[in-house]
Design brief:
Blueprint lengths: L1 E7 L7 H11 L4 E7 L6 H7 L4 E4 L4 H7 L2 E2 L3 H4 L4 E5 L2 E5 L2 H9 L6 E5 L3 H12 L3 E6 L6 H5 L3 E4 L10 E4 L14 H10 L2 E4 L7 H8 L3 E3 L2 H15 L6 H12 L2
Parallel strand pairs: 1-2, 1-3, 4-6, 7-8, 7-10, 8-9, 10-11, 11-12
Antiparallel strand pairs: 3-5, 5-6
Bound molecules: NADPH dihydro-nicotinamide-adenine-dinucleotide phosphate (NDP).
Length: 262
């Protein structure tokens, strides 16, 4: 049997075990997936070997540490410098980032010419890298200036609330944690009103609740989406890596969707 874990803090809320276990069972793959509450990021590598697992997902706040502990990192994980999926091969740790392509998969049917990313944390980095890779025009808007350096150094259009020039954006994405455990909007109401007036889509990466951001977007008749599809697709891509691309993606997606709804 192959054994997988999701490391995080907190991790109890994670829906990854039910998604992966249901899909293992449905595809007759001899695998088991569980949660591990990790308190100290410095123990991540030791725990991986101590628990003798074959692979892992890594969630907040350990994705940067996960990048550091890998012997090899693949694809877009190298530009984001964050890893959410690790497999063990010949006792070496190989790291991937499936959050970025997972997000792209969730919005790829949308017709938009440009996007505004609210927030400048790990998720904003992942989305900006995949947009850059796909030649999508995007702008970053963050509450504070401090975190914008990464984006400015990459040559991305980046603003804080003070110096933001409002423009027409088709797609607005909330990657901040505003609305996760509170009723805050991710930017001042006046800025959001001006942006929403000309927008088509509003996407929040938070899932499991309708955030104030999505509620407000609805009032402006935008097409809205929460983070559930991103969660689903990052999981589908991780599952493919865990099972060495043995199954059809459409089949994995079907069972992961069912597992997510359990
Ligand atoms: P980070 O901690 O790296 O970044 C948080 C960002 O949110 C910062 O830019 C911060 O701005 C901003 N922020 C926090 N509070 C507020 C506020 N009240 N108003 C405005 N801006 C605020 O977080 P992550 O990128 O790791 O995660 C962000 C969210 O994405 C979380 O809610 C997480 O659950 C979700 N997520 C969902 C996934 C999915 O599969 N659906 C996958 C990964 C993450 P400042 O710099 O000014 O502090």
């Amino acid at each position: 049997m192959k054994f997988f874990i999701i490391f995080g803090n907190p991790v109890a809320h994670s829906k990854s075990p039910q998604m992966h276990n249901f899909t293992f069972k449905s595809l007759n793959f001899d695998g088991c997936y569980t949660r591990y509450l990790l308190k100290d990021e410095n123990l991540l590598k030791d725990k991986f070997f101590e628990l003798n697992i074959d692979g892992a997902n890594i969630t907040v706040p350990f994705k940067e540490k996960a990048f550091e502990i890998c012997d090899e990192t693949v694809g877009i994980a190298n530009s984001i410098k964050a890893v959410n999926t690790i497999i063990k091969k010949d006792n070496k740790l190989i790291g991937y980032n499936t959050d970025a392509p997972g997000f792209y998969e969730s919005i790829k049917s949308y017709k938009f010419k440009n996007a505004l990313i609210l927030g400048a944390g790990g998720t904003a980095k992942a989305i900006s890298e995949i947009f850059d890779e796909k030649n999508i025009d995007f702008t970053i808007l963050n509450r504070s200036k401090k975190r914008l350096d990464y984006f400015i150094n990459k040559g991305y259009k980046s603003f804080s609330w003070d110096d933001f020039k409002i423009d027409g954006f088709d797609l607005i994405i909330n990657t901040t944690s505003a609305g996760l455990n509170d009723e805050n909007l991710p930017a001042p109401k006046e800025i959001l009103e001006s942006i929403f007036k000309n927008a088509k889509y509003a996407v929040d990466v938070i899932y499991g609740k309708e955030t104030p951001f999505l509620k407000m977007a609805k009032e402006f008749n935008l097409t809205i989406k929460d983070g559930k599809d991103m969660l689903l697709y990052q999981g589908v891509l991780a599952f493919e890596i865990f099972t060495d691309f043995e199954y059809e993606k459409s089949e994995i997606e079907k069972y992961m969707k069912e597992g997510l709804e359990l």
